[in-house]
Amino acid sequence: MKEALGEQALRNELVMQAREKGIAIRRNPSGMNIWLAARFGDSTDPKHVVALTLFEASELSQVFGDRGPYLSFLIRKETGDPVFTASEGGEAGWGPTQVWSELSKNKTPEGIGELKSPGAKAYLASFVDAGIGDLVVVSMVDRQAALQAVDVLLKKSFLFFLACLSATAIIAVLAARGLTSTLSKLSDATRKVAEGDFGVRVDERGGGEIGALAKSFNAMAAEVSRLLGESAEKARMENELATAKTVQETLFPAATAQLGNISIAGHYTPASECGGDWWYYCTNGDKVYIWIGDATGHGAPAALLTSAARAVASVINYGPELPVGEALGILNRAICETSKGKMMMTFFLACIDKTTGEMTYANASHEAPYVLRNGVTDPGRGDFENLNEVNNPRLGEQIDRVFKETSIQLNAGDRVVFYTDGVVDVKNPEEKVWGERKFLKTLSTEMTAN
């Protein structure tokens, strides 16, 4: 009765595994038979079918039950439980489950390794995915016995040398030494990989199981080496981007400044390590210049355009006073020569006369700033004046472009808000854009509170 219940539980478990993974295989505890379960149809289809069959596996049992010099196991990967194994032999406490717990650390579908049993006995072991269900084939041989077999071969070859032609004996000795060398090289290579040398390779020309082991070893070492190389390259690129970000931060001015009767406050947060947004301010006599622009794209190329803009700002800062239209023309020429027409930049340049309060500006397809006049206590959307009287093409499109300018009168207490499209285009975790309406509402709230 217990055996029937156990067999029914095994069949139920196989059906569940087949539904999940497509195929499942297990040895029948009551005999040398194999239970095989296979799913037909998608698991999400309520009409899928699972077929369960029991078939004779005496030959398979004989293959894994015949010990010889090798111990072979058919094991379940997930649990380490043996399906077929040698009926006897091996050390106490050192069975298929313990061997697989060591080999499975490689996290690869196949591989080789040198293991030591609890009794300090050395083994050469290999494993490979059986390609059916969650089964894996493990084969291991006593390392000392393997080398002893080579010694026996050498002795027999020597006796054969005494009885036969010397040439035949020499060939046999050379062949034996070649086999010993292959085993020794494979063992040395395994040790080097364990020490962190993933560039080591072994000769694959040997045939049989040694050649198969060598190919598996080389494939494993090559893949690990490739992954390490990719990780190193990724780390190098991240370090270069971090350095570029540090350099770009030097292009921005102090976040706040008091330039006579003009107060300035700004903030910059890039979307990536290096961005194309840039703002700046400088003075020349009684004039205060406000620069803000946005290069197309992100990363190092966009940051390069901001450095060109910063260089032009330095010229305006220390050179003779220039109208904003001419200054924007100089900046346009610098952008054209830097990007070779491959990248553009929107820009807004304003010049405020500290004495008169007049602000002259030129716009190159940038987001037009907003002006909130002094005395407005609870501003609505209509209270924000949009500075869109003039609008020129983007910088970088044509090297000899002429930029139009205009001016407005600012009074004491008036506030001007400059920004880039990244402010209104920012998205929340639900991927919804903030938008201009919410931007102006936030400005109204903050300006009323301050």
Describe what you observe in this structure.
The chain is of the alpha+beta class and 450 residues long. It has 3 domains: 56 residues, no CATH class; 185 residues, Beta-Lactamase (2-Layer Sandwich), CATH 3.30.450.20; 200 residues, Phosphatase 2c, domain 1, CATH 3.60.40. Helix content is 40%, strand content 24%. The strands form 5 sheets. Strands 5-4-8-7-6 form a 5-stranded antiparallel beta sheet. The chain has a 5-stranded antiparallel beta sheet with strand order 11-12-13-14-17, with helices on one face. Strand 2 and strand 3 form a beta hairpin. Helix 4 packs antiparallel against helix 5 and helix 7 runs antiparallel to helix 8. The termini are far apart. The model has no long low-confidence stretch (mean pLDDT 77).
Pick out its properties:
3 domains, 5-stranded antiparallel β-sheet, 24% strand, elongated, 450 residues, alpha+beta, Beta-Lactamase, Phosphatase 2c, domain 1
Radius of gyration: 39 Å
Question: What is the average per-residue confidence, as pLDDT, rounded to a whole number?
Answer: 77
Shape annotation: elongated
CATH classification class of the largest domain:
Alpha Beta
How far is the first residue's CA from the last residue's CA?
A: 84 Å
The biggest beta sheet reads:
5 strands, antiparallel
State the helicity in percent bands: 40-55%
Number of domains: 3
CATH topology tier name of the largest domain: Phosphatase 2c, domain 1
Question: Secondary-structure element order, as H and E?
Answer: HEEEHEEHEEEHHHEEEEHHEEEEEEHH
| Helix segment tally | 10
